[in-house]
Amino acid sequence: MDIVAADGPAARIRIVLVGTQHPGNIGSAARAIKTMGLHRLVLVAPQKYPHNEADMMAAGAEDVLNAAVEVATLAEAVADCRLVLGCTARSRRVQLRELRPRDAAASVHAEAAAGGEVALVFGRERTGLENEELQLCHAAVHIPANPDYSSLNLAAAVQVLSYEVRLALLGEGGDVTPAAIAPVNPDAVPHAELEGFFGQLGDTLEDIDFHKGRAPESAMRKLRRLFVRTGLDQKEVRLLRGILADAQRMARIARDRGDG
Amino acid sequence: MDIVAADGPAARIRIVLVGTQHPGNIGSAARAIKTMGLHRLVLVAPQKYPHNEADMMAAGAEDVLNAAVEVATLAEAVADCRLVLGCTARSRRVQLRELRPRDAAASVHAEAAAGGEVALVFGRERTGLENEELQLCHAAVHIPANPDYSSLNLAAAVQVLSYEVRLALLGEGGDVTPAAIAPVNPDAVPHAELEGFFGQLGDTLEDIDFHKGRAPESAMRKLRRLFVRTGLDQKEVRLLRGILADAQRMARIARDRGDG
């Protein structure tokens, strides 16, 4: 029996593969996570799946593969998660906070041990995660690869991260950078509940004419990032939505007066 | 440019693959080590090599593959090494000291930084390293896998160890268990020079009739392990061989008297 119990914190950790191109990599990833005592695999719109190459590469981890959940979007895959970490080659496009694998694993452990659902997200073989997908992540994880040749195979990246998560679950993670770990809000609402808030926030920006002709996407992207990272709880969401409602009310009055 | 300089300690670290069965794994291993800033690959009697599957899986690490050295035995592969670590699934057959990957990486770094040649050795996909091969190793490295399913893919194991070596070279290895690191004898003789000593030791045991009818292999295995682990320097080898010579001389005199 593995001393990392399958029904302990490990049961709240899912490995999410987004848009995987080669089915063999899905099988190899299943094998990689099982060797490290993890077992939950979520596939977001895999390009070819099911596929015999996936079965072949799983080599004894068919149980992980057979239990894998398939969904259409990353938002669905992480809807109930309180911590979502995206594995990236260093990205200059999105200003996400970047964690070392070891610090990321410590965060994963802390959140899962506190009862939260956690996702470790891996993008497409060639192109990684899209900006929109990274916006669903609380932080990015970067494996400190050789910058002249940083293209880890997908399953190799899954292996390294799963290895660090296992060390953390075994209590052998070691020298974690305390400042690098996300402050965990044990009462943070799951992702899906933020969407209503973001919808209202977007409406409010329109109502108060914040954009003034500029495209609204850039501001919303920054705001999403900010609030996703923060880990809002129910009361905070209610508070903020109350503020938005008042701002919207004022804007309506102002517009009515302007019209009048 | 990678901040782990290719001509620094990394240049003294070789990854040795013994008896690899699937050529694709050789290519994947080349890719894995290159992503971690290493570049020296030694192939001991690969079953199918060169092979187009190796080239395919190398995917941009062809330079590592093309520079790979092919030899017939592990003894040749590590003849000039001062530190040889064998990656194993936990083995009960051979009583080698066992290091965690992180501690192993710290040893590798310390030895390579002190100017020594270092080898990280990986066995066959199914059967690992043979006992005779493990006897050439100063210590074993064990990736703490799920005991119910510990079969890491060969390239995945190479990736995890290379990752830890990279962290050590970057100075980010962290919490090393000091007692676990091999005491490095900066003047230890390379492996090949021990063979003359072992030869004389074997002769001496015969001469003094140590075995008394038992098979000599078991005692020699234990003695090899002991002296390989110790890291003997030139003076110590000379001292020990002097002792052996005297023991042999006495045995000869005793035999002559018995004959007389």
From TrEMBL, chains A, B:
GO-annotated molecular function: methyltransferase activity
SUPFAM superfamilies xrefs: alpha/beta knot
Gene3D superfamilies assigned: 1.10.8.590, 3.40.1280.10
Domain of life: Bacteria
Alphabetized CDD domains for the sequence: SpoU-like_TrmJ
Catalytic reactions on record: uridine(32) in tRNA + S-adenosyl-L-methionine = 2'-O-methyluridine(32) in tRNA + S-adenosyl-L-homocysteine + H(+); cytidine(32) in tRNA + S-adenosyl-L-methionine = 2'-O-methylcytidine(32) in tRNA + S-adenosyl-L-homocysteine + H(+)
EC top class named in words: transferase
Name this protein carries in UniProt: tRNA (cytidine/uridine-2'-O-)-methyltransferase TrmJ
Species name: Luteimonas fraxinea
Highest classification ranks of the organism: Bacteria, Pseudomonadati, Pseudomonadota, Gammaproteobacteria, Lysobacterales
Name of the gene this protein is made from: trmJ
